């Protein structure tokens, strides 16, 4: 039955898809069928467990507990909350009386057991729901914990009662149990099996009841043994006594059933480790035939031959593949083990560190009810599903032109079955070596780049948020704002003369009559709901909007001082541009661009819709002015500019609509969807020639501008077979950054350049200052028909200051000329160019200053297409081309002969690379497509690609197949002049055409970085070196760049 | 008459005796030879000493050149680490006109080897601006923009990166040799 269920899901995912194709179709909402997690409990049976010091009375909801520290109000409800000033969690008043709770389930829990956790709103009537998981306790229960009342019982007796209750009441989990040997390691007394199997449930209970406190506390050794059991390896500490069916052929039989199954260990102990120094902890060959940790005398600083290696074992089990025989060991095919710890009548830093390193959480318990609560919270955490989370963008803050900053922000989205998707933005600390840290200064990601479940991002106060999109980050802060007493500032622009967004004219409130029902395209009955939907909605999905991080100087006017303020601007598909305070995560304000007024009603329908899905750009004026501009990508056809010079007083500046190039569609090109991230450039508007003697000086007049592509023609390009010519978006243009006025000389379209051959829409464009004069005089862009255009402003002009002397020099004056440089579709196959090229300065004989430019092809909006073989191109441009170049003018380096050819072939390739106009290679994985603009650093071109899964190869019998249908993301790194591999990315052995094994071959061009569509590679020059970051599904990949040198000598002089 | 002839004859004989007398010749020759040898020895010693001075000076010059050259090499190799670390946040934040860094480089026995001076290459640099802190040569730098696009052939993106230029001047410990280089460092484009 499971097989058919899965097959149906696969078919639904791969073949039905949304009506309108776009890059989110790969995500779908398919998750794996539920697989029961493995939970192995290490039960402390040391001699100290016989100590009778546990207030054995369970919590009594009818009793009043009194003691010196019983200061909580009995009927009040308290919530666990992180206090950033103390750096600890504490209990804060949630509501004064439990009867205030309308959420009946949680209220019932509080009244019966004193604690609960779940989704509940923090405002009256405290109904169930919202997006925030809260941990609540009744005041009476807190007093019970503080009082320590009740007849004292032995620790083991209380633990046995709690575990028996847990086993009896838990379903859909595979439980097993280990206990300590007398002083050497531990042993398995109940194998992992489903508690849905009644006989196993009873056997477990029997094993718990039979535990006898006797011996020492070899914690690390027992955790080692647990790992060996999971891995199916030979025991280190036992030769006999294995439960039936768990040991065969000299090794354990691994309990892991599927490669996507989750595995956990819960360590419950009442004391520090003792008799825990087996030398194999530091010199033994463990699961992967490697060492757990190095020998460290500091770790032996425990009495009674104890050690601190417990933390190292937990780290190993969490970070390493603990079942190499299963899956391929990469990211989602890695069988790691999460370790939780419970300190029962003990509080230990070692247990905290063990849980932190092991991906779990640390709990403490002093009595029966707290121990039960600890197990309950752990089980709730284990059962929780973080089905799909994606971090597609990685902006990095920089303050005042110093090194890249020490903060990193990740945008998230999570698909939902219907209606709006949810999103978030989270902040982490970045160190000089490129590692991410959470608010507790623990590493926030695994070595694979996955965000750890037990990490807590900045701004988060309600518990670990890990990779969960719905938890923590700016979304949690926004939820608390919406639920609390604060007033959310939601602005729009109503079209009046009052352009300050804080003006009452622009308040996005139902009571604002300037925002009419006609503007919203609704009737009166819908009005309240629309405003509530926008104002009280959860943080929307951030799919394509890359946040802009803007630093503001404080009152002292000095950079990088404590009074500086950083804010983050990001668009989301909740209809809003969000402005977020970097210190607190508070939403300072949000803004509904006017073009979305009549679309907001879609927020309430069952479909996922796009709104502010473009990426903001910020222009910094010389007088301190800051102008933010943002498009909507698939959400619309306009751009909106705000003056955010004062982040607390934003002002509507201008909008750029579809008719910006002219009023008449018959004479002027209309814009397509506003996909561009406007490129901030300084361009010339004219020039002044000054002659002094025989010298000529040309001074350019300049203007700060935003540069745009014409936009995406969804009407044509979303078709399975687009027409040969688009009807909108075939343009590139610039506007004055401060006013929005069109720059007359800087516009290219079929209307203005009829012979240029602009037949397809342009979605991305880039300007380049090739000579460092501060003025952009070269522009490159590709279109969706595979053509690349080159535009320049610096034409050569000849002057005669004192005849017959003539002087010829380039003049930058705003007179642009364009040429169609390259055609990637000359063979008749449409290869779409969706990202702007990158370029490096290059000098060509006889001393011509040109560029080497790089771009790739691929239809991101049809990610599962496998029919087009896309390419990556490097094209020389010395500005002398008289006809459009094609692939025949380049060297096809697909086979990488420069590294894999014979000596003759290598020489021939080198010769060809010298004389031809560049190189290209085919992306040979079926359906592979370039999904980012390339970045060239240190002579290496970096870019990312996406390769869809082969639907015919999906095994419907594989319950883990759903995690593989989202395709593969790859990072390419190749030599910018040859396309050759530069890093030993692949472990595959390659031989050249002479039969010699080579270190760098064709397969070393790319590295698989994860599943789904990866972000563009972000290269950050940090104080400690340069790192490369790529957002992938579930986390962020951090890699060093290939060439690390970035300080170069350019002149030398011996003074004396 | 006969007396004068005798006298003349006697004088001739006497002269012949004197001329023909070889007594003391060895002594004279020895003295002469000794003088010659002494002169030759003195000359040899003088030449050797001069050559030694020349060699020593060449060695010293070479050593000082290496000291100065080593200083600038270390400054661009270890701009962000160790004793020569100079490209700090504070340096960057000070601005191209005001930022400077000086450090004395010592050898393993803590003997001074070279003095290092770094400041930004920028347009409109006032050579006297940091006169109290830097040598004249360290202030005498090309009149070029501090921030520029990555140069031709560098292999760095024009779109995502920029370079910033610095003048590094190293003077040998004795002050007899001074070497200056211009260097650029790649940064993320602002």
Provide an overview of this structure.
The complex is a heterodimer of chains A (1056) and B (190). With 1056 residues, chain A is α+β, with helices and mostly antiparallel strands. In chain A, helix 6 packs parallel to helix 8. By secondary structure, chain B is an alpha+beta fold. Helix content of chain B is 43%, strand content 22%. Chain B contains 4 helices and 5 strands; from the N terminus they run H-H-H-E-E-H-E-E-E. Chain B has helices at residues 2-20, 25-77, 89-94, 136-139, and strands at 100-106, 112-120, 147-148, 161-172, 178-188. In chain B, strands 1, 2, 3, 4 and 5 form a 5-stranded antiparallel beta sheet that branches. In chain B, a hairpin with a 5-residue loop joins strand 1 (100-106) and strand 2. The chains are: A alpha+beta (1056), B alpha+beta (190). Chain A binds chain B through residues 396, 398, 400-404, 559-560, 766, 768-772, 774, 836, 838-843, 849, 851, 935-940, 976, 1019-1021, 1023-1024, 1046-1056, and chain B through 65, 76-77, 79-80, 89, 92-93, 137, 142, 145, 148-161, 165, 169, 176-188, 190.
Q: What is the gist of this entry?
A:
The complex is a heterodimer of chains A (1056) and B (190). By secondary structure, chain A is an alpha+beta fold. Chain A starts with a helix and ends with a strand.
Entry keywords:
heterodimer; A: alpha+beta; 6-stranded mixed β-sheet; 15% helix; B: 190 residues; alpha+beta
Q: Which structural class fits the helix and strand makeup of chain B?
A: alpha+beta
Give the averaged pLDDT of chain B, no decimals.
86
> How widely separated are the two ends of chain B?
127 Å
Q: How many helical stretches of chain B?
A: 4
